[in-house]
Inverse folding.
């Protein structure tokens, strides 16, 4: 099978050792399922490789944007990861879940004064500062609170990861960070160093997502180490930390490329250590911010089929009870997925149809041109694999559709981690 947590027994799909269609009956659909041991295994790929790597005191920072709910913070805290948080909402969730906030990194290209104050009050360990205005505002607010705030400075190394434009963030013309090439990044470093309430720890970049090209982090680290050297020469300041962001790719379908994350981390860290020696700078500690590769293959989504529409001579549709509200990724990026019929998993898949949702949008397609068993019908359970990242966190209430629950499976037992939204939840802020 494509994934180690997917098996088929007696024609039924088992996820993390549990009958998927049975869970669909028990919890209803649409339903997000997560495999806790897979999340932990994915975390350890990073923590083990970073602990043993050539850059001292290195650490992994879970990018919460991939999937944020209270229960995930207990898992990543236990696994020793830090957390990348991009909004007051993510900060609040992590804090309420008991996450050690000194291990939190506050990211984002537009932090409001309220966000900054809230993050400081919550004890966020680091700010990843994105622009000049933020440096000024943070210095002022930190000063009023009588603290010195640790920061990293986000810069753009001018690297094209050759993945998708929507997720390429490290190019010079990106809305994120400050460009090295234009000379603006060194000015931002000077500004940060001049602020008495800011403590610059190092530099940050993120080149993009779905990276399979093992060379991308080598190229990014070359540019970033060159910049660290420039900072040393011009400002006499030696950066302690180099954060290369997230971005390792994940396998969504058979035949897709793969990258050995542990081996790549080891090689990138060795490269950083060698290059640092060459440049006569201290080897910085390395931070990586994986999101997708922690949760994507730890999640699947289950749906119930409502109709099978065969438009004679044209095309076929299998409609389910979710759609772009719980998984907007095909609509946004044309993302590919593997789809199985959970209660007919061993039947020959001979019917070609688009798997579509229930929203009033023709673009509400979960996956086009899927192969289903010829007898697929209303009531069958469809499973879309690898939906753990950027599904729940991107879900919406379009058409006032309630968001599905999250159920975590561990040791053959299932537990609700996020409840299904009720109709009352949907109108709770409406003034009636
Ligand atoms: C700054 C930053 N860090 C980490 C990530 C996580 O990337 P991924 O989920 O591809 O690992 C992102 C994703 O956009 C990001 O913007």
């Amino acid at each position: 099978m494509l994934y180690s947590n997917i098996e088929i027994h007696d024609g039924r799909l088992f996820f993390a050792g549990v009958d998927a269609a049975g869970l669909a009956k028990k919890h209803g659909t649409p339903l997000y399922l997560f495999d806790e041991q897979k999340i932990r295994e994915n975390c350890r790929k990073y923590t083990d490789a970073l602990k043993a790597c050539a850059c001292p005191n290195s650490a992994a920072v879970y990018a919460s944007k991939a999937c944020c709910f209270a229960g995930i913070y207990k898992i990543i805290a236990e696994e020793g990861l830090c957390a990348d948080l991009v909004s007051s909402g993510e900060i609040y969730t992590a804090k309420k879940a008991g996450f050690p906030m000194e291990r939190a990194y506050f990211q984002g290209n537009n932090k409001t004064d309220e966000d900054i104050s809230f993050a400081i009050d919550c004890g966020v360990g680091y700010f990843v500062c994105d622009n000049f205005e933020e440096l000024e505002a943070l210095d002022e607010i930190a000063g009023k609170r009588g603290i010195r705030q640790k920061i990293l400075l986000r810069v753009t190394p001018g690297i094209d990861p050759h993945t998708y434009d929507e997720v390429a963030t490290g190019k010079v013309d990106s809305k994120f960070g400050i460009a090295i090439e234009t000379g603006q990044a060194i000015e931002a470093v000077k500004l940060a160093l001049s602020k008495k309430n800011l403590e610059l720890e190092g530099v940050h970049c993120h080149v993009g997502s779905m990276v399979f090209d093992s060379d991308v982090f080598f190229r990014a680290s070359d540019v970033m180490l060159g910049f660290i050297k420039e900072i040393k020469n011009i400002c006499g300041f030696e950066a302690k930390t180099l954060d290369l962001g997230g971005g390792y790719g994940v396998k969504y379908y058979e035949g897709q490329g793969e990258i050995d994350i542990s081996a790549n981390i080891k090689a990138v860290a060795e490269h950083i250590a060698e290059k640092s020696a060459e440049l006569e700078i201290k080897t910085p500690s390395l931070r990586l911010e994986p999101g997708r590769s922690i949760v994507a293959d730890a999640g699947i989504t289950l749906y119930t089929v409502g109709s099978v529409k065969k438009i004679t001579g044209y095309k076929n549709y299998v409609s389910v009870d979710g759609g772009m509200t719980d998984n907007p990724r095909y609509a946004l990026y044309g993302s590919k997925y593997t789809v199985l019929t959970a209660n007919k998993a061993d039947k020959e898949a001979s019917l070609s149809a688009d798997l579509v949702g229930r929203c009033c949008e023709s673009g509400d397609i979960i996956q086009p041109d899927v192969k289903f068993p010829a007898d697929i019908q209303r009531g069958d359970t469809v499973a879309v694999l690898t939906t753990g990242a950027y599904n729940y966190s991107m879900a919406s209430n379009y058409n006032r559709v309630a968001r599905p629950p999250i159920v975590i499976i561990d040791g053959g037992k299932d537990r609700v981690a996020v409840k299904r939204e009720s109709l009352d939840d949907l109108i709770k802020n409406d003034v009636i």
User: Anything to note?
Assistant: The longest helix spans residues 216-235. The chain is about 30% helix and 25% strand. The domain at 6-35+296-426 is CATH 2.40.37.10 (Lyase, Ornithine Decarboxylase; Chain A, domain 1).
